[in-house]
Structure formats: structure tokens, C-alpha cells
Design brief:
mainly alpha, CBS-domain, Tetracycline Repressor, domain 2, 3-stranded mixed β-sheet, 64% helix, 8% strand, elongated
């Protein structure tokens, strides 16, 4: 089925684009019986996963093709199937299905009704060729090979184009996250008000406040960009997070000590203020460590809850990083300066 050359209707039901030429396997089958059914019924045009159903024909598992072909014939399907299946409901739209591909990066999804029965299958290649045919030629060429990360990236770009298709729609999509920046800035201003006596005692703190925030934001954005880029090619696990967190903290420590030493030296030479140099240099070192941690932690948390990283991560990360940096800056000044 080919879509017209115009922009496809992304609000159309996804079942309109689901394939029906696929075999379903029974949960009590062995691998040998499953292969016999597949040979008898055929596999249609494309089959990437085989879906397993119970006696009521409800979806209970999925068997990747490689597992099915490499297991012994006597092995029950229940031993090799994956029981946690991500399925698309029949009430979903084409845009919803696009987001499933981008979020989960599977090559196919079953479409199930309210009782959990498999109604059809959305295949990545079929989806790219038929539903996204109205996309630009470069996007289509990149989407032909769904096994590559570029397919999901191109699909993500298409979703974003549709989602923010009008100025008002773009405003509604982006403004709530910018409110995080407004809130963070307001809290930072209130925090600075509590330390106005400290600022009055040492004017040099005000001179370098902008630099402290700029360094903090730069490091948090660098860490955030590296983290978001890593999500395209790695599976996020606790082990990966622990390794990445350890690496970022060590990097932040080196960056913080280096930047803090340079800025502290400038303060000492320029103003002959040892305590001021210690406060500014020390707060830079500490805040850069927290900035790196937030640059990793915020995108990871948003990724965990399937929120849009490109839109949400920046405002949230910067707001938190600025507020934490000011807390460190003013608190250290209050404790150290006479």
C-alpha cells in the first residue's frame, strides 16, 4: 500500500498500516513445532520477530529470529521467548507508532487490541517506505536500513517536524520546559538576595559571578551533549551509568581544579585578595563537579521516563546547575569571608 505524495496523515490509526501476513506461535509449542508451522504458513514479506500467544490468542511473548534458529528442536518456546513485549495499541496513531520506534529502537512492533490479541505488525522497513514516503530524499535513503541508528535519528527528526509544524504548536511544546529556566532564575535571584550582605563585604565576588555561572553552564552542556549522544548507541543500564558517572566525576575534578586554579590566580594577582581567590577558585572546582553530574543525571532520568531529551534536557540541566553553583558560591563565601 502506497501513500500519496503529499504529507501523510500522522493522526491516522496505526492499524491502517499494519501487516497481516505473519504467523503466530502457540506458547506450548516447541522450537521444532514452531518451525514446522512457519514453513507451513509462510513468513510473509518480512518477519523480524515471531510473536507467541496463549490459548485465548493473547500476546504473551516474542521470539527473535536468531533465537528460534539457533535453539534445539526440543526446546519449549517458553524458555527462549522474551515475556516483556512492547506492543502498540490499536488506538494509537501513526505519530504514536513513530515515537515507539524512536524510543525503543526495535525493528518491529505488534499491534494489539484491548484484550491483548495481535491484530497486525508494524515493520520498520515497511513503515519507513510507506508512511514516511513524503519525507525528504535524504531521510528516505537513511531510513531504508533500519538496523542503523541513523534510521531512528531520521525518524526522530520527522516526528519533531510534525510535532512543531505550526508556531502555536511549537510554543505549546517548548514553553513548559522554558518555565523551568524561569523558575530556576527566579530562585537564583531570591537566593542571591539572602547573601547580599556577603556580596557587599567582597565586591570581587560580584565581578566573577558571571564567569562562575558561564563555566558551570558550559561544562554541564558538554556533559549533557556527550550523554545524549551516547544514548543513540548504548543500552542504558545501571552498570553503564556507574561507569559513565565515575568517568564524568574524574573529568569534572580535573576541569574544576584547573579552572579554579587559573581563576583564583587571576583574583589573587589582580586584587591581592587571598580569601576571595580561595572562595572563587574553590567554588568553581566544586560547582563544575556538580555540573558534570547533572549533565549526566538529568538526561538519564529524562531518558528513563521517555521524555524528549532535545527539548527538556537543556532547560532542566542549566536551571539546576546554575542554582547549585550559586548555593556553593554564596555558602563558601559566607563561611570563609570575614
Amino acid at each position: 500500500m502506497n501513500i500519496a505524495a503529499g504529507i501523510p496523515d500522522f493522526d491516522a490509526p496505526v492499524v491502517d498500516h499494519a501487516r497481516k501476513d505473519f504467523p503466530l506461535l502457540d506458547a506450548d509449542m516447541t522450537v521444532g513445532a514452531a518451525l514446522e508451522r512457519i514453513r507451513r504458513e509462510g513468513v510473509g514479506e518480512r518477519v523480524i520477530y515471531f510473536y507467541v500467544v496463549d490459548e485465548q490468542e493473547r500476546l504473551v511473548g516474542v521470539v527473535p529470529t536468531r533465537r528460534l534458529l539457533t535453539a534445539s528442536l526440543e526446546t519449549p518456546l517458553g524458555e527462549i521467548m522474551v515475556r516483556r513485549v512492547v506492543a502498540i495499541p490499536t488506538t494509537a496513531t501513526v505519530l504514536d507508532a513513530c515515537e515507539f520506534f524512536v524510543l525503543y529502537k526495535f525493528l518491529a512492533f505488534p499491534v494489539v487490541d484491548e484484550q491483548g490479541r495481535v491484530i497486525g505488525v508494524i515493520d520498520a522497513n515497511l513503515f519507513a517506505e510507506e508512511v514516511l514516503e513524503a519525507g525528504e530524499s535524504e531521510d528516505r535513503q537513511r531510513a531504508v536500513a533500519p538496523v542503523s541508528p541513523e534510521f531512528f535519528e531520521a525518524l526522530g527528526f520527522r516526528i519533531e517536524q510534525i510535532r512543531v509544524g505550526s508556531p502555536w504548536r511549537g510554543f505549546r511544546f517548548r514553553f513548559p520546559w522554558l518555565l523551568v529556566t524561569v523558575t530556576g532564575g527566579s530562585l537564583s535571584a531570591i537566593l542571591a538576595g539572602f547573601f547580599q550582605a556577603t556580596l557587599a563585604r567582597s565586591l570581587v565576588l560580584a565581578f566573577f559571578l558571571t564567569m562562575v555561572l558561564a563555566l558551570n553552564e558550559s561544562v554541564s552542556m558538554q556533559s549533557m551533549s556527550v550523554t545524549i549522544h551516547a544514548f543513540r548507541s548504548v543500552s542504558v543500564t545501571w552498570r553503564w551509568l556507574a561507569t559513565a558517572f565515575r568517568r564524568e566525576i574524574i573529568t569534572a575534578l580535573l576541569l574544576g581544579v584547573a579552572c579554579g586554579f587559573v581563576v583564583g590566580t587571576i583574583v589573587w594577582v589582580w586584587r591581592n585578595d587571598v580569601l576571595g581567590a580561595f572562595v572563587i577558585g574553590g567554588s568553581i572546582a566544586l560547582s563544575l563537579i556538580t555540573a558534570c553530574a547533572l549533565g549526566l543525571g538529568v538526561p538519564s532520568l529524562l531518558h528513563r521516563f521517555k521524555l524528549d531529551l532535545k527539548i527538556a534536557a537543556g532547560p532542566v540541566t542549566l536551571a539546576l546547575a546554575d542554582f547549585v553553583a550559586l548555593v556553593i558560591y554564596f555558602t563558601l563565601a559566607w563561611l570563609v569571608l570575614p
